[in-house]
Amino acid sequence: xxxxVTLTHAEALARLGHALSDQTRTRIxxxxxxxxxxxxxxxxxVGVSRQVMSNQLACLRGCGLVESVPDGRRVWYRLADxxxxxxxxxxxxxxxxxxxxxxxxxxxxxxxxxxxxx
Length: 118
Hints:
- It is a single chain.
- By secondary structure, the chain is mainly alpha-helical.
- The protein has a domain at 8-89: Winged helix-like DNA-binding domain superfamily/Winged helix DNA-binding domain (Arc Repressor Mutant, subunit A, Orthogonal Bundle).
- The chain contains five helices and two strands.
- The protein has helices at 7-20, 23-34, 39-46, 50-62, 83-98, and strands at 66-71, 74-79.
- One of its GO terms (biological process) is response to cadmium ion.
- It comes from Antribacter soli.
- This is Metalloregulator ArsR/SmtB family transcription factor.
């Protein structure tokens, strides 16, 4: 029997939508889907400053999607739940199945990609 949708369910999906609404946060989630990482490594991989990375990781922590793990004097980040990796893969597959041309080289649906000219 289908589960009754509650306000809590809607809020949870809204948090995911908020996280995915920013390309930097989406790229962080996709990177963490592959492997946990230190913020400085994520900043280099995503191409943002460490301050921007810190702010975006704080947002993702607030959304409950990533967690920090102390590692001596450093901290690394991972997805808060391993099922999130599969969910992100499923969402990506669905978007590409619905519109295979989306996000191709000529895509304008999300505006310019960070680091590329408009």
